[in-house]
Amino acid sequence: MKLVYSENLLSSNLPSGHRFPIGKYRKIYDQLAPRHEGLMQRAGRASLEDIRLIHDPGYTLAIEEQTLEPRLARRLGFPLSEELSERARRSVGGTLTALAWACAQGAAGHLAGGTHHGFRDRGEGYCVYNDIAVAIAVARRDHGLQRVAVIDLDVHQGNGTAALCSGDPEVFTLSLHGEKNYPFRKERSSLDVGLEDGCEDAAYLKALQPALEQVEGFQPELLIYQAGVDVLAGDALGRLALSLEGTRQRNRSVYALARRLGVPLVVTLGGGYHREITRSIAAHVAVYEDLVDAFPDR
Asked: How many other C-beta atoms lie within 10 A of the C-beta of residue 200?
């Protein structure tokens, strides 16, 4: 078991008042590191060779050289910079490091990533590259794993992941999300479960259980869990109403599935934009605390 982290490179680069809570990443690390020092693994950046298993070379070059055309840059939600390019590559690199550890030890978490709005030739919604899709490609190339299930429980549909994996019979994409929330034009996942605004714990968990049963029936060789916590009540970009305990029951359901299947599990961060950001941070930390509790022997 490892918890993978990378340096936070955008803290001083975002304009004042930017709505993306970049500072949360350091605070998540600061809470987890003292408790789990022996589990912490620093990640480097992904190679362009790995990223280009999924992403268009022209797009990656435009990110590297900050030459992306303005209309596409606006969709990212971040200003172009060398720091953004480096952060995007490290976001993928952390997930690939977690993948390697999960294949070796059974489970691993990345304290970032989950950038599920990345498409082949563009990014949007604070997502430059799609670390989940890249991890699937690397799992096949380097680890001999073909059948992969993505369990995306961010409040926003994993549209980039769905599009990138569309038509691949050996990838099962589950997205449980707010039906009326961003993205307003949804892609088609293997299984989409759209939830009404204001959905609370009981209704959420009732919808989750049969969805996880379908994932189990797919019999994947690898699970990737996008553990966004913007499902919390009061999240500025979410419209659901889960409690912290509800999100923890969600996590435990996914981890129990991974244990039943006996396959490697990779956990990524995802969204969390609570008006009181300490609540998002507490929920993010709980994702990894629950992971450690679920795999104490790994």
From this structure: 13
Confirm or reject CATH 1.10.150.80 for domain 2-6+21-294, answering yes or no: no
The model's confidence at residue 298, banded by pLDDT at 50, 70 and 90, is: low
Amino acid at 294: A
Element housing 226 (H / E): strand 222-226
Token digits of residue 78: 């971040």
Q: What is the DSSP string of 162-219?
A: HHHHTT-TTEEEEEEEETTSSPSS----SEEEEE-TT--HHHHHHHHHHHHHHHHHH-
List, in order, residues 6 or more apart from 229 with CB less than 8 Å away: 235, 247, 270, 271, 272, 280, 283, 284, 287
Q: Which stretches of the chain are DSSP H helices?
A: 24-32, 48-51, 57-65, 70-76, 82-105, 131-143, 159-165, 201-218, 244-261, 277-294
Delimit the domains of the chain by residue range: 2-6+21-294
Who wins on pLDDT, 7 or 285?
Answer: 285
Q: How far is CA 192 from CA 29, 123, 163, 174, 280, in A?
A: 32, 21, 13, 6, 24
Q: Which of the four pLDDT bands, split at 50, 70 and 90, describes residue 286?
A: very high
The answer to whether residues 294 and 287 touch, using CB atoms and an 8 Å cutoff, is no
Distances, alpha carbon 190 to alpha carbons 20, 133, 165, 176, in Å: 29, 14, 9, 11
Structure tokens, 87: 């952060």
- Take residue 166 and report the two structure tokens written for it: 């569309």
Which residues touch 42 (CB under 8 Å, ≥6 apart)?
A: 4, 5, 6
- pLDDT at 13 > cutoff 80: no
Among the listed residues 10, 119, 9, 138, the one whose alpha carbon sits nearest the alpha carbon of residue 72: 119
Q: What predicted TM-score, i.e. pTM, was given to this entire model?
A: 0.96
Distance CA 7, CA 186 (A): 32
Distance, in Å, from the CA atom of 101 to the CA atom of 256, rounded to the nearest integer, reads: 19
